[in-house]
Recover the amino acids of this structure.
């Protein structure tokens, strides 16, 4: 079964958005992430922020990019839910860390934060509804 068929076969809560919404939402979010995270990397390279401010941004990207292989490759809902939690936690730490240095970076990531909060809740709901399926 291909990954999209597998995901479509999972039980989902009634409030889950349609599958077609994820690609455009993530496209917009990845543009915001690229601009804002790129600014953080630039600030770090220029020495205007310490590495400890950059670190949660880097970890967030690692956990973000790990989600699809975990969810659709391994088909492991529980591990995907844990990864969502790591994405959320690192994002919160990243926004708190950058706030004193670049308020605009924290503000531009509010849509990303809201989406990750929603996606984490959705993933935990899917995990719970499908706990016997893996």
């Amino acid at each position: 079964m291909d990954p999209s068929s597998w995901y479509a076969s999972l039980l989902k809560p009634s409030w889950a958005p349609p599958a077609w919404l994820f690609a455009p939402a993530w496209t917009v979010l990845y543009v915001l992430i690229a601009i804002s995270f790129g600014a953080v990397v630039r600030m770090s390279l220029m020495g205007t922020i310490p590495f400890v401010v950059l670190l949660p941004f880097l970890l967030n990207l690692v956990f973000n990019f790990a989600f699809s292989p975990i969810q659709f490759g391994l088909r492991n809902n529980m591990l995907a839910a844990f990864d969502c939690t790591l994405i959320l936690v690192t994002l919160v730490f990243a926004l708190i860390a950058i706030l004193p240095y670049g308020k605009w970076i924290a503000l531009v990531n509010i849509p990303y934060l809201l989406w990750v909060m929603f996606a984490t809740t959705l993933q935990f709901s899917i995990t719970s509804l499908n706990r016997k399926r893996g």
User: Anything to note?
Assistant: Helices lie at 3-9, 22-46, 51-74, 77-98, 103-108, 110-129. Residues 21-129 form one domain. The chain has one domain: 21-129.
